[in-house]
Design brief:
Length: 357
């Protein structure tokens, strides 16, 4: 197979060197060019036709977001954002992934002995992503705030979601379709530390449900969405005077911490049939066994379909082991969840059933 062709775009010569060095260590990757600004990068894209682009978030002249929008709209190519670990940098990286970037990676800090060690794996995942042409972004106005839905009343069941590469965009669309009175929702999205804080804050600002970063002991309540903090702790569901979040330190499971498998398995054990599991786009197999445990515990399970998955890895693995009850396109998942968890709908169905019996 031909190597994956990568264009590295960063205004720092040091960063361009570090990124290129990390990528060139992998024989399956070829750095075909580097660029210090979007203008040079534009010419390099035309000349070298890269398979993947790494793009600095903050650059002089045209920032990474403006350039990313042009790439997504005019020449769809998988893009990995390279961001500083600062509030502004992570917030911009999250916005970039909502626009269409495949993934993000943090720039190394002082004392980092293996800068960009994860980047080759991310590039390989990105090379297989389905990047679709999108219209120019309207910024935050493109998100829909679904208000309180009077005809919907959560029936107490728990919603747990797992996602990875491409998940920020998928979660943004799914959560935008949930009303203010949504079912209690816990999410594991594979992201570096600090990025999940910005993700929760941005989704909270743009959507009707209250979105927060999960904390140990947080009560799982209707109208709230809890996102697992990136780092070294797993998010679990526990029953302690009601369902609550538990953050537990532990080694990676299925290659990740936090792990989707850990969240799903805990939901199967604690909530059993009173849970719904949803597995979204991502590379690898994290979540497959946990979702299977949920289905075996009589929970309802949904997998994102191949056509709408940026990377059909995690949903495929779950589908192949028999964990997925229903496979749906992304834009139909939220409505399916609301139908499954609507107490009013269930009462109406029960009433009709009793009248015809």
């Amino acid at each position: 197979m031909s190597p994956i062709r990568v264009l590295v775009v960063d205004d720092s010569a040091t960063m361009r060197g570090l990124i290129s060095l990390a990528l060139r260590r992998d024989p399956e990757i070829e750095v075909v060019a580097t660029a210090s600004n979007p203008l040079t990068a534009r010419d390099s894209i035309k000349t070298h036709n890269p398979d993947v682009i790494t793009l600095d978030v903050e650059m002089p002249g045209m920032n990474g977001l403006e350039f990313l929008e042009k790439i997504v709209r005019l020449r769809p190519t998988p893009v990995i954002m390279v961001s500083n670990l600062t509030g502004e940098g992570t917030e911009t990286a999250i916005e970039a992934m909502q626009i269409g970037a495949v993934d993000c990676i943090a720039k190394p800090g002082p004392g980092d002995s293996q800068p960009f060690a994860e980047l080759p794996r991310m590039v390989k995942a990105a090379a297989g992503a389905r990047v679709r042409t999108r219209p120019a972004s309207n910024g935050e106005t493109k998100n829909r705030r679904r208000p309180f839905v009077a005809a919907y009343e959560p029936d107490g069941r728990l919603l747990v979601i797992g996602s990875s590469t491409g998940g920020v965009e998928a979660l943004s669309e799914l959560i935008s379709q949930l009303p203010e009175n949504c079912p209690p929702t816990a999410i594991v999205q594979h992201m570096p530390p600090d990025f999940t804080t910005s993700l929760a804050a941005r989704l909270d600002r743009l959507n009707a449900p209250k979105v927060i970063e999960a904390y140990d002991g947080a009560p799982l309540e209707a109208g709230y969405v809890y996102i697992a903090p990136g780092g070294t702790k797993h998010l679990e569901v526990q029953d302690n005077n009601g369902l609550r979040c538990r953050l537990r330190a532990g080694s990676p499971v299925s290659g990740h911490s936090p792990s989707v498998d850990v969240l799903f398995t805990s939901a199967a054990q604690v909530a059993k049939s009173n849970a719904i599991g949803v597995i979204l786009t991502g590379m690898g197999r994290d979540g497959a066994q946990g979702l299977l445990a949920m289905r075996q515990a009589s929970a309802r399970t949904i997998g994102q379909d191949e056509a709408t998955s940026l990377i059909y890895g995690m949903p495929r693995a779950a589908f192949e082991v028999g964990a997925v009850e229903r496979q749906l396109p992304l834009d139909r998942i939220a409505n399916a969840v609301l139908v499954m968890t609507n107490l009013r709908g269930r009462q109406g169905r029960d009433k009709c059933h009793s009248q015809t019996s």
